[in-house]
C-alpha cells in the first residue's frame, strides 16, 4: 500500500515551498510545525543533503472530527507534507489520509480521510499549474 500522494514540479525549492503554503491555505490547512531536515542534519551531524522540509499541516475542522471519533488519532495528526529538492525540480509529498483508516481499522474515520484526501489532492494539483 502506498502511503503518499506525490507531485513533481519544475520550480526551485523556495518557490515551491511558497506555493505549497499557499495551496494548503486555500484548502483550509494551516502550518503548525516546520522541520528543516537538511539544516538539522547539517547542524547536528555535519551531514549535507538536498533541501528537505517537513510541514505539519492541519485543517482544524477535519482534525476535530477525527479526534471526536478517536482521541488516539492525534498520533497521526497533523498531515505531514514534505517538500524536497530533486535534481532540476522539487518533489512535494503528502501523507495519504487513507492511512488513518487503514492503520486504525476505524471505518468511522473514512469520511474524514476522504475529505482530507480531496483537499490535499486539490492543493497538490494546484502546484502543477503555472
UniProtKB/TrEMBL annotation:
InterPro entries: DUF302, TT1751-like_sf, UCP021774. Pfam families: DUF302. Residues 35-97 form the DUF302 domain. CDD domains: DUF302. PANTHER family: SLR5037 PROTEIN. This is DUF302 domain-containing protein. The lineage of its organism: Bacteria, Bacillati, Actinomycetota, Actinomycetes, Kitasatosporales.
